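Both lines are retained for reference:
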Amino acid sequence: MLVRTVTNILDANNRIARDNRALFDEKKVFVINLMSSPGAGKTSLVERTIDGLRDRYRIAVIEGDIQDSFDAERIAKLGIPVIQINTGGACHIDGNMVQEILPNFDLGAIDLLITENVGNLVCPAEFNVGENIKVMILSTPEGDDKPRKYPLMFEKSAALIINKMDLMAHVSFNIDKAIKDSLIINRNLSIFQVSCKTQAGLEQWFEWLRDRMNDFFARRP
């Protein structure tokens, strides 16, 4: 019964996510589902990505947390449309949550919508929100064992951003092992080594994202 119930929940979510995706495609909005554990640097990456791409794309953000609006307030200071979703205990954002808040956005005035998911290395990978791509962040203080412990996150993501490279001298993190294990799970995974603090490596991430967005817009005249 439990397996059937979980399957039904995922099926229902996928139907809503497909509706979201159809709307995003119609409005020509490229959507990222950004995932990581708490404290890996999701909001910092969102801020840096806004700074790196706002001269070319119109950007909006959905912030997901169990409670509070601290991250949304950070994004709002950048002059970017942002809406907070508080899940009230749920460990992820799902398609229905996103669908409910979409009327608050002017989708016709958005090119890139970044959904910052709840900090968790399990559930967010299972629930689509209508995104074009999933992107995950792994920070060096978390350890290099995460690909083997949480393989679904790496399997579902189009890109892996290894953040806090500036801390490599102070943590036990085998970068070669982390990359090797990640590519065993997903050989098509694009991997970027960055520091949101120093901004090292971010331009490669921006370029990769621009290429994906340009392909998306080229297919939707």
Remarks:
- The chain has eight helices and seven strands.
- Residues 2-218 form a domain with the Rossmann fold fold (CATH 3.40.50.300).
- The mean pLDDT is 93.
- The first strand starts at residue 30 and ends at 36.
